[in-house]
Amino acid sequence: MSTMKFCRECNNILYPKEDREKKVLLYACRNCDHQEVADNNCVYRNVIHHSIGEFTQILQDVAADPTLPRTRAVKCAVCNHPEAVFFQATTRGEEGMTLFFVCCNPSCGYRWRD
């Protein structure tokens, strides 16, 4: 994993730079022209950690989306509101589609799946 590198001469940050002739990655200071060869070719690594039970992110604004279908066949378990927006989506780690519901009560926004 790469870390921030600092100049040995002036303590400013070193930035990745390519030496096209030698085909080497360098770290160069923009202040004093100090350069050093990189010990690793990885400049940046973004690691994303997901929890096993991660729920598909559903924004509460979904309830105000006029393009999504609504139903009065279900009631919200939290506020007992008689209307919900619903849509289908895939969830990570599961096969097939899952039916998601979002309560249409603006002060609630509870989400559940069938």
Oligomer: single chain
Report the β-strand fraction as a percent range. 25-35%
Q: Count of helical segments?
A: 0
Which structural class should the secondary elements be placed in?
mainly beta
Shape: elongated
Considering DSSP H and I runs of 4 or more, what fraction of the residues is helical? under 10%
Element string (H = helix, E = strand): EEEEEEE
Global Rg: 26 Å
What kind of sheet is the major sheet? 4 strands, antiparallel
- Strands side by side in the biggest sheet: 4-5-6-7
Q: What is the CA–CA distance across the termini?
A: 42 Å
- Unreliable runs: none
**How many DSSP-defined strands?**
7
Give the mean pLDDT. Answer: 84
How does this structure look, described?
It is found in: Nucleus, Nucleolus. This is DNA-directed RNA polymerase subunit. Residues 72-113 form the TFIIS-type domain. With 114 residues, the chain is an all-beta fold. Helix content is 0%, strand content 28%. The chain has no helices and seven strands. It has strands spanning 14-19, 24-29, 35-37, 70-71, 84-89, 98-103, 111-113. The strands form two sheets. It has a four-stranded antiparallel sheet with strand order 4-5-6-7, with no helix packed on it. A three-stranded antiparallel sheet has the order 1-2-3, with no helix packed on it. A hairpin with a 4-residue loop joins strand 1 and strand 2 (24-29). It is elongated, with a radius of gyration of 26 Å.
